[in-house]
């Protein structure tokens, strides 16, 4: 009884599993990079919002009306 066909099948399966694992690792790296970029963007937006809030008048009613009024 020869085990060679079973070994061939296992080698093919292992090769497929290796490819899938490599693909998942690449996807994980890409997602991590995208997440880091989004986190940086949120930090920048928060800082910009804080800057806008600090420069805005504390009482919106003290602001002059728009020119069309």
Question: How would you describe the overall organization of this protein?
Answer:
- By secondary structure, this protein is mainly α.
- It is built from 1 helix and no strands.
- It has one helix spanning 4-55.
- The protein is rod-shaped and about 90 Å long.
- The N and C termini lie far apart (96 Å).
- The model has no long low-confidence stretch (mean pLDDT 91).
Keywords:
69 residues, rod-shaped, mainly alpha, 1 helix, single chain
- Low-confidence regions: none
Number of strands: 0
Rg over alpha carbons: 29 Å
Q: Total number of helical segments?
A: 1
Largest sheet: none
- How far the N terminus sits from the C terminus, by CA atoms, comes to 96 Å
State the secondary-structure class: mainly alpha
* Share of helix, binned: over 70%
Strand content: under 5%
Net shape: rod-shaped
Average residue pLDDT: 91
Order of helices and strands: H
Outline the secondary-structure elements.
Elements: H1 4-55
Brief rundown of the structure:
With 69 residues, the chain is an all-alpha fold. It has one helix at 4-55.
């Amino acid at each position: 009884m020869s085990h060679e066909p079973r070994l061939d099948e296992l080698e093919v399966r292992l090769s497929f599993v290796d490819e899938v694992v490599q693909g998942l690792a690449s996807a994980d790296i890409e997602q991590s990079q995208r997440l880091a970029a989004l986190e940086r963007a949120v930090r920048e937006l928060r800082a910009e919002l804080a800057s806008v809030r600090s420069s805005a008048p504390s009482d919106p009613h003290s602001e002059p009306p728009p020119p069309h009024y």
